[in-house]
Amino acid sequence: MIKILLFAGLAEKAGTSTLEIDMEQATTDDVKAVLKEQYGLESIDTAMIAVNESYVKENTSVSSGDTVAVIPPVSGG
């Protein structure tokens, strides 16, 4: 299982801030594709991705037991 943490608008749209995906091996791009397909998170393409609390680039390998955080751009004033 890969644990997914969603923040801000992504968590609101998905209806939860924590998900688990039943995959042994994947990439961050695979995880994003699953989230788009199953939860309609189209805006995920602009989000920052962290694996096990470290920011990563696109298409980074993730394994069962890893935690993937999906952090959308933040604005405010």
Automatic annotation (TrEMBL):
PANTHER family: MOLYBDOPTERIN SYNTHASE SULFUR CARRIER SUBUNIT
Subunit structure: Heterotetramer of 2 MoaD subunits and 2 MoaE subunits. Forms a stable heterotetrameric complex of 2 MoaD and 2 MoeB during adenylation of MoaD by MoeB. During catalysis MoaD shuttles between the two heterotetrameric complexes.
Record keywords: Molybdenum cofactor biosynthesis, Nucleotide-binding
InterPro entries: Beta-grasp_dom_sf, MOCS2A, Mopterin_synth/thiamin_S_b, ThiS/MoaD-like
Gene name tied to this protein: moaD
Function, as annotated: Involved in sulfur transfer in the conversion of molybdopterin precursor Z to molybdopterin.
Protein source organism: Bacillus mojavensis
Pfam families (alphabetical): ThiS
Any one Gene Ontology cellular component term annotated for this protein: molybdopterin adenylyltransferase complex
GO BP terms, alphabetized: Mo-molybdopterin cofactor biosynthetic process
Record pathway: Cofactor biosynthesis; molybdopterin biosynthesis
Family: Belongs to the MoaD family.
Gene Ontology terms for molecular function: nucleotide binding
Protein's name according to its UniProt entry: Molybdopterin synthase sulfur carrier subunit
